[in-house]
Amino acid sequence: MSTEISKTSKIIGWVIAGKLTALYLFSASGKLFLHPEQMAQMKLADWRVIIALGEIGSALLFLFPKTNKYGALLLSAYMGGAIILHMTNGLSIVMPSVVLILVWIVAFIRNPELYKLK
After folding, report:
1. Given this model, what pLDDT does residue 11 score?
2. Sign of CA dihedral 98, 74, 52, 9
3. In this predicted model, what pLDDT tens digit does every residue of 74-113 receive, in sequence order?
4. I need a surface site. Which of 8, 71, 75, 81 has the fewest CB within 10 A?
5. Contact 81, 50 (CB under 8 A)
6. Helix (H, G, I), strand (E, B) or coil at 4
7. Which of 105, 100, 107 has its CA nearest to residue 61?
8. 28 CB contacts (<8 Å, ≥6 apart)?
């Protein structure tokens, strides 16, 4: 299997990665400025700044090709935590699950060597 990425795959990877990064940055800004009361409802008010900064850092690592693997790993862990938090608070896990799957899709599109699991 070739590890060369086609131009179409590169474009698709950039578009989805850009949209996901924008989503994470919007989410982080909500934690910091727009809706801090939501974090208080989940008993995470003391951690909201640290969570938001981690989300921003992970999203930026995910956006750029050289650090995409690290960003995908960090965002996978972050979304796993979000899924657990949604489950324990009786919320739907559909949205964080879909976002997590999109993170994995982009990781595999941008890093075809991940197909070789050795």
Report:
1. 92
2. negative
3. 999 999 999 998 999 888 999 999 999 999 999 999 988 8
4. 8
5. no
6. coil
7. 107
8. 52, 53, 55, 56, 59
Contacts of 89 (CB under 8 A, 6+ apart): 42
User: CA 57 to CA 77: how far, in whole Å?
Assistant: 13
Q: How many CB atoms lie within 10 A of CB 59?
A: 24
Report the C-alpha gap between 72 and 85 in whole angstroms. Answer: 20
pLDDT in tens, 30-42: 888 877 777 777 7
Structure tokens at 64: 């750029």
Task: For the chain, count helices (H), then strands (E).
Answer: 5, 0
Which H helix or E strand runs over 43?
Answer: none
Amino acid 16 reads: I
Q: In the chain, where are the structural domains located?
A: 7-111
